Amino acid sequence: MTTTFDISLSPPHLDGAERRFVEEAFESNWIAPLGPQVEAFEREFAEVVGAGSALALSSGTAGLHLALQLVGVGAGDEVLVSTLTFIASVNPIRYLGGTPVFIDSERVSWNLDPNLLRDALVERARRGRLPKAVVVVHLYGQSADLDPIVAACREFDVPLIEDAAEALGASYRGRSPGTVGCMGVFSFNGNKIITTSGGGMLVANDPDYTIRARKLATQAREPAAHYEHVEVGYNYRLSNLLAAVGRGQLRVLENRIEARRRNFDRYRERLGGLPGLTFMPEAAWGRHTRWLTTLTVDPERFGADREAIREALAAHRIEARPLWKPMHLQPVFQGLETVGGAVAESLFAQGLCLPSGSSLAPVQVDRVADVIRELHR
Ligand SMILES: *Cc1c(COP(=O)(O)O)cnc(C)c1O
User: Fold this and answer.
1) Residues 285 and 215 in one domain
2) 10: in domain
3) Residue 15: predicted pLDDT
4) Of 70, 137, 308, 326, whose CB has the highest number of CB atoms within 10 Å?
């Protein structure tokens, strides 16, 4: 079922600057996992997002797995998590035998609703059974409303983990999402705002977390020459070669954000006047990177529904995708508890992600917009 598109949703965008670091890695013969590129990438990344410490990993999913384990999530423990997200936010809860409880979105940023979160915590405190963790997801390049989320977690002393895989470069009241909770996770998967083809970063202000995560990610090897192990670990570290790609990509991050925001501005210019189309709002609390340009389609007012638009674009070899299907609607999580859900359901029913790559040309944005305008007429 591989369709090739002329215009893809969010293809990798290399700069050329990556080569310098990759060549350094080759010349030092440091192709193996770990090495100086990894250390430099961690240091530079921590500086860019303003975190105390950072750990480079083979994926964002690995980072979430380690973060959940470090706050003590185990068999039978509840974890409250955004329902509107990619499944990687939730799978690691299951790896540890935990039970996800899904929390609906609000309409201002489409992210986790702080009021529903607090309600769920109040109710669980009353029952004397608080969750082991909260996972907040920052979707499509925009931070969730962190202040009230942090306040609710503090009130009940529940650790907050941030899934910032889609939000590198975003801001929340001057801070980077991912650096506000006890740990945050970023991804460098091929479709993210910067990429190493695959990879992730775990950040924390308290370096104890990254020190413990570093050990777990390296087969939990004890500091001894003879490979001593007292606990079970993972092989989750990033290779030196991919860290070199990441260092080059990190240098063009601001440029990538500007390009994606420009795409959004052009879509809004071309489509903003059409009835029934509503772009994802940019909340007042910070910068949205517009990693993806997303909108909702009211079929009555627009005259065609989301799927009609997506299919028309596909017929023109243009890739568009529905918004994330909420986790509480996924067969794999059937029967699990959900708090609210109607907002995420309506966003899924009407929501569409448009081609948003930082290498997209203005004429390509115009082609996409023309197909959509045509459907309205
Ligand atoms: C991409 C993504 C991840 C996982 O990242 P990988 O590096 O692919 O493991 C996690 N959460 C969200 C919301 C994502 O979009």
Assistant:
1) no
2) no
3) 81
4) 137
**Closest Cα to atom 14 of ligand 1:** 165
Q: How far is the CA of 377 from the centre of ligand 1 (A)?
A: 37
pLDDT band at 31 (very low <50, low <70, confident <90, very high): low
State which residues form the domain around 169: 17-250
Q: Is 377's pLDDT higher than 80?
A: no
CATH number at residue 103: 3.40.640.10
How many percent of the chain have pLDDT more than 90?
A: 92
Q: How far is the CA of 92 from the centre of ligand 1 (A)?
A: 11
Residue closest to 117 by CA, chosen among 61, 76, 156: 156
Reduced to 3 states (helix: H, G, I; strand: E, B; else coil), residue 184 is strand
Question: Who wins on pLDDT, 17 or 168?
Answer: 168
How many residues in total does the chain contain?
377
Which ligand 1 atom lies nearest to the CA of residue 85?
13
Amino acid letter, 229: H
Among 11-15, 47-51, 186-190, 331-335, the least confident range: 11-15
The total number of structural domains that make up the chain: 2
CATH at 358: 3.90.1150.10
pLDDT in tens, 289-342: 999 999 999 999 999 999 999 999 999 999 999 999 999 999 999 999 999 999
Substitution candidate for ligand 1 out of 135, 163, 183, 242 with most atoms within 8 A of CB:
163
Please tell me the distance from the alpha carbon of residue 119 to that of residue 113, in angstroms, as a whole number.
Answer: 10
Q: Are 337 and 197 within one domain?
A: no
Q: Whose CA is nearest to atom 2 of ligand 1?
A: 165
What is the CB neighbour count within 10 angstroms for residue 335?
5
